[in-house]
Amino acid sequence: MMRLVDHGIDDRLFRNAMGSFATGVTVITTENAEEVHGMTANAFMSVSLKPKLIAISIGENARMHQHIKEAKQFAVNILSSDQLTESKQFSGQLNLESEFTFLNYKGLPTLEESLAVVTCELHSDYVVGDHTIFIGHVTGVKLQQKDPLVFSKGKYRELKELEDLKE
């Protein structure tokens, strides 16, 4: 294994730089031992079209890490702009007494008002630093016509359309 050298970059500076990249917001869900588990994440990307593969990155200390390893499947719920409460609940920013309603799609619990849902079987996983990158083989996709929930620089944001530039 290649040994990586720490170049002395300040942790806060690095986090701030990475946080300046605007992302969508997802809630990763799975079911393990007949219990639904969810976690807000923005480390998500498409990997391949043939075969259809996606990747999520989960910290080694997150409870979801072990749930995915055991369940060997997960869903990525891409949140719509009206799902701020869900994002905050599954990131631990809120502790609501009420429970969320999950829909079963392709055998996995999913959030019903999501912009998109991608269900996956675990294809492979790679430990990289203090995270594991889980590669999911896509088993299902649902899409609704909604605006996405966006996160950048530590804040939730909304999209606005820019006028086309005229030459």
UniProtKB/TrEMBL annotation:
Name of encoding gene: nphA2
EC assignment: 1.5.1.36
Keywords: Oxidoreductase
Enzyme superclass (EC): oxidoreductase
Domain Flavin reductase like as annotated: residue spans: 18-158
Gene Ontology BP, a term: pyrimidine nucleobase catabolic process
Pfam families: Flavin_Reduct (PF01613)
Protein name as catalogued: NADH-dependent flavin reductase
Gene3D superfamilies named in the record: Electron Transport, Fmn-binding Protein, Chain A
InterPro entries: Flavin_Rdtase-like_dom, NADH-dep_flavin_reductase, Split_barrel_FMN-bd
GO molecular function (one): flavin reductase (NADH) activity
